[in-house]
Amino acid sequence: MARELARVMKPSSDVFVSDLHPEAYARGWHTGFRDGRGTCSIETLPRAAEEIVSVFYSAGLECLTHLPLSLGEPEQPIFAEAGKGHWFAERAQLPALLVCHFRCKQIHLGS
Fold it and tell me: What is the model's pTM?
């Protein structure tokens, strides 16, 4: 994915990549969706932030920053609606997401 992003990006363009934080995966969190038909889990292969940055760098993208983000007040109603409001305070103390900002550092010829 990183190579393909680098191939199709214009020089000096930006891409933002986000996923659950590696600590969230280590605590058993998982990604998925819920709709009127039920829930769907997404199979993932969790990676450390340093590994993600290294892969994107090898593909020609410079990491400008990578930030751990935690849950906040806007997410509290989601926990309450799911009947898990009692978990919110504890979970809000943990890094929940990893957001990376990459910039294309190369000109790709012959794309």
Answer: 0.80
CB atoms within 10 A of CB 99: 14
| 55, two tokens | 């892969």
Q: How far is CA 46 from the centre of its chain?
A: 10
Distance of alpha carbon 2 from alpha carbon 56, whole angstroms: 5
Name the token pair of 52: 């993600």
Quick: pLDDT tens for 1-41. Answer: 999 999 999 999 999 999 999 999 999 998 888 888 988 98
Q: Is 85 helix (H, G, I), strand (E, B) or coil?
A: helix
**7 Cβ neighbours under 8 A, 6+ residues apart:** 108, 111
